[in-house]
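As agreed, record minuted below.
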Amino acid sequence: MKRFIFAATVLLMVCSCSPKLYNVTKSYDDKHFEKLQAVMDNPTTPKGTGYSFTEASEIGLVGKMFYDTPNPYHRVDTVKYKGMTKGENFQARCSAGLAVIFSTNSSTISVKTQWGQLYTSVATMPIAYRGYDLYIKNKKGEWQWAAAGATKPEKGEDNLVLIKDMAPGEKECILYLPNYCEIVSCKIGVEVGSHIKKLDGQFRNKIVFHGSSYTHGISTSRPAMSYPMQFMRHTGMQVLGFGMSGNCKMQPYFAAVLENVDADAYVFDSFSNPDYKMIKERLQPFIDRLIAAHPGKPLIFQQTIYRESRNFDHGSDDFEAAKQHMADSLMKIAVKKYKDVYFIQTNPDDGLHEWSVDGTHPDDYGYSLWERSIEKSLLRILRKYGIK
């Protein structure tokens, strides 16, 4: 009898409460969908968008080492600087690390691209190597991710709509260019009748980042997620990116490029690509050339990261350990010998060993950990030179 009374009581409670719960939910849904229908059914809502296009280079690019390249989207004039291999020549013509900063009152932003040489990858998202990454400044004055995208190869120069239906008013934007393809023309589209104009004063100083595929941004999902680009957004310092995937080996012809780059500081990821013998042979001449070219300016070298491929592969572990040991021993000497040479440690791991894409390259989270691991050290060194 007691069980029957208890069950009846529970049933009565459920029945008495259910209509109220249903009504509350229904009321919320009705309001939500009525609002949506008001927008969708409004005959004044535009069904299509007309675009006005402006060449990105005419607005102005940030992150360039040289502004006199015949193609404005090339990082290095490969006719002027000789000695690069075919692969290095292509990488120098890619737009990695370049961005355009602008303001617009358009509610839609698109991109139309004319491509040169294209690249494909199994370890990097297509959005990263042939796509665009858009950030917009939020109400707190911080750069916040807004949109990203890439056209399919077969669609060629189609107009790529990155974002639409934004609220009216002025937006401050930074658009990162693809990190591993050659651009001939990049036109930014806004709605006809709206404006787009250069936005100055967003980043200060010039900090060169020269390095391997890590510095280039391989295995990222978007162009803005390499650790140098994250450093740029976090600190407000302009990064001049010179990542050369697989090819940063302190070559004399890369030293020749860097000798002619006028910057406030130089950061190197120089020990990731060469083996220990090459590090021993090339490090001292490389440092000497750059000290002579940029006296009194900081040259900051990073130790290469621990690669997850070492976990169970003894051959990989021995190879990487030899590189790190050689870099450690030589940089201890260099730091004592030269007052403007520094050596800092990197760490893209949080202890879980889940950050790697392919055993070599970090994912977006890994690159975020990398950037955090060096940011304070870099800023402390830069402050010594009045770079703030």
Q: What stands out?
A: The chain has a mean pLDDT of 90. Residues 2-40 form the longest helix (39 residues). The chain has two domains: 47-202, 203-388.
